[in-house]
Amino acid sequence: MDKLQAKERIAALSDEIRKHNHNYYVLSRPTISDYEFDMLLAELIRLENEFPELIEPDSPTGHVGGGVTKEFMQVQHKYPMLSLGNTYSEEEIRDFEERIHKTIGDEVEYVCELKFDGVAIGLTYQNGRLVQAVTRGDGVRGDDVTTNIKTIRSIPLKLHGTGFPEEFEIRGEIILPHASFEKMNEQRLEDGEEPFANPRNAASGSLKMLDSAEVAKRSLDGFFYYLPGNDLPFKTHYECLLAAKSWGFKISEFAVRCKTIEEIFDYLNTWDKARHELPFDIDGIVMKVNDLKQQEILGYTAKSPRWAMSYKFKAEQVTTQLLSVAYQVGRTGAVTPVANLQPVQLAGTVVKRASLHNADIINNLDVRIGDMVFVEKGGEIIPKIIGVDLGQRVAGSTPIAFIGTCPECGTALKRTEGESAWYCPNETGCPPQIKGKLEHFISRKAMNIDSLGEGKVEILFDNGLVRNCADLYDLTFDRLIGLEKTYQSTEDKKEKKISFREKSVANILNGIESSKNVSFDRVLYALGIRFVGETVARKLVAHFISLDKLMNAEFNDLIEVEEIGEKIAQSILSWFSEQKNTELIDRLRMAGIHFKMDESLITRISDKLSGLTFVVSGVFENFSRDDLKKTIELHGGKNIGSISAKTSYLLAGENMGPEKRKKAEKLGVAIVSEDDFIGMIQ
Ligand code: IVH
After folding, report:
1. pLDDT, tens digit, for every residue of 14-68?
2. What's the chain's average pLDDT?
3. Which residues have CB under 8 Å from 488's CB, separation 6+?
4. Spans of all domains in the chain
5. Mean pLDDT of 394-410
6. What's the pLDDT tens digit per position in 281-300?
7. Cα(587) to centroid(ligand 1), Å
8. Does any ligand 1 atom lie closer than 6 A to the CB of residue 286?
9. What is the pLDDT of residues 530-539, one digit of tens each?
10. Would residue 115 show up in a list of annotated catalytic residues for this protein?
11. Class of domain 431-517
12. 84 alpha carbon to ligand 1 midpoint, in Å?
């Protein structure tokens, strides 16, 4: 294909992919299969790789992410990001309406909308292209999170239709739907990380991530509800919403126009009940005066518009009795107290259990067995105990004493200073820890031994055949054949029987054998080192290449790696300092597991930068920051996160922070420009 043909094909593919993105993510009405969509996207990526000079700045491949940000730039909002006056009382809504009528007269129409519980964002478009996305920050200045926002597939990078101003801003809320939130927390627990408390925190945490390819995996979404500025070609707010919809933005289908206060109350009461049926969180409703001229007359206070107001729902709460506290031991040995409650209806589901999180929470609540407790749904999903009805406490109750020994193996529990969780330290002898670690080792994203799925690890454990992951590689046909167990399925709770016959034994052994081909980053993740999730494992492997280098790394070498902080570094050092772990590694090595990155995957253009480390900062003329980093690696150099005395060069672009320059000068690190750099690789 020549360049001209490629240009045409890229334009046609981009248009088509944009249309399908909109159908799928905005309208929820896909017209082609996921497979067909992936094929189109793959073709576009291929063409863009072949003809990088033809990549459009608003190409739909931008949704895939890949840009890594060092730190978010602070940007001043063109229109300050105000908040809304809010209330929990219907009385104050009446006052709000009366005030408006006093100023405007009786001819007022309102638009009622859902109040999305997420992270506020302002998007700027120039000539129909998304150029900047800024968070609220302090209302005057926010963080430029454009690279991350671009990964959200429902957000148009290039607008549809016509009639949009040459430059304008649109405001909305970035949210994380319930399903994605739950999936994400499961993964975090599996990786030994703290789960997010609610979808809003998760959305906010995701937007702050530095690696946009990670953000792309989070399934964030966004609803848009406001066009600031007073030179818009529209008469009403509702018209603005319809126009924004026609340009491709996701606008809630539940925005309605109301004439009377009764209609407003109807809307409010309907959503107070129906909100639990939505696939995302809302925390109230918003009322806005529809006419833009009337809005202008009403104006603003220092903090919020006088033409809008929000009504916040009271969190749904019930009272029920605490029957007992159970303790669960996870893969990492962390002991989580769980409250068993008298079953009670709450926000559409029957609640029987609530997390008590840790010993501190139990103490702070001073909750006791038999107490009547207030239960609320945090983030509207996970029930939690938020207080005790002391008036109903029966005489003679005593504070709950957190268990001192592991409920599974009897070992005395330990607590690290500064951490709230108690741990069972018996990593190699405590059944749920051993089984949990094995389950993690064989899981899909780790060694992917799916022939050892539900219940099978349990059989191996119960028969004393495996105590750690290296034992898997000693299994033989003779040891496995004929083993049996009945167990309760987690899916349908029915009793099931597994017996290892010839075929399943062969499958298991094949699965174990093929796990020897799994790449080193997944092996590292499979080891289950605390805080070393998939991404961290990948970053470590890309930096150190082999396990031997990683094992020899000192604290300072570790924190030089992008996204590796002190907590992760400490955890890695402590894991490798234990003899039982190094013995495990030796056995896995003997079994033939990969402990080195496949060098053929590292494509090199030259070795000109071999042994050199770079910190890239600022904005560049010929390269995006990502491309620069890639180029450094292609020439054998390494990118690191922050400047230290060992850094070879600070590669400085425009607008680099003065702190960086100062630090480099102080440590004697050479500062080079983009041109110097081009000279180095030519
Ligand atoms: S309008 C100048 N509409 O709630 C007023 N805000 O508590 C612009 N929010 O700052 C805001 N849903 O982050 C508006 N349908 C909606 C909203 C909404 C959620 C957020 C927004 C706002 C905050 C105020």
Report:
1. 999 999 999 888 888 888 887 788 889 889 988 988 888 898 888 898 887 766 6
2. 89
3. 494, 495, 496
4. 3-56, 74-312, 317-423, 431-517, 520-601, 613-681
5. 93
6. 999 999 999 999 999 999 99
7. 57
8. yes
9. 889 888 898 8
10. yes
11. mainly alpha
12. 6
Whether 196 lines ligand 1, by a CB cut-off of 6 Å, is: no
Taking Cα atoms as reference points, which of 353, 346, 350 lies closest to residue 319?
A: 346
**Ligand 1 neighbour 281 (Cβ under 6 A):** no
**Given this model, what pLDDT does residue 600 score?**
62
Residue with tokens 């909109």: 22
Q: What is the dihedral of CA 546, 547, 553, 556, to 10 degrees?
A: 70
**Whose alpha carbon is nearest atom 17 of ligand 1?**
115
Nearest by Cα to 664 from 625, 609, 615? 615
Considering the candidates 115, 158, 250, 384, report the single residue annotated as catalytic.
115
Cα–Cα nearest to 248, from 140, 339, 130, 144: 130
* 74-312 and 520-601, same CATH topology: no
CATH number corresponding to 520-601: 1.10.150.20
The helix or strand, by DSSP H or E, that contains position 265, with its residue range, turns out to be helix 261-274
Is the distance from the beta carbon of residue 310 to the nearest atom of ligand 1 less than 6 Å?
yes
User: How many residues appear in the chain?
Assistant: 682
Fold of 3-56: Helix Hairpins (1.10.287)
Q: Which of 550, 589, 586 lies closest to 571 in space, CA to CA?
A: 550
Q: What's the CATH number for 74-312?
A: 3.30.470.30
CATH class of 317-423: mainly beta
Q: Which two tokens stand for residue 89?
A: 């009382």
115 CA from centroid of ligand 1 (Å): 6
Task: Report the CATH superfamily, name and number, of domain 613-681.
Answer: BRCT domain (3.40.50.10190)
**For the whole model, what pTM was predicted?**
0.65
Which of 116, 204, 295 for mutating ligand 1's site (highest number of atoms within 8 Å of CB)?
Answer: 116
pLDDT digits (tens, 9 = 90+) for 153-199: 999 999 999 999 999 999 999 999 998 998 888 777 767 677 787 88
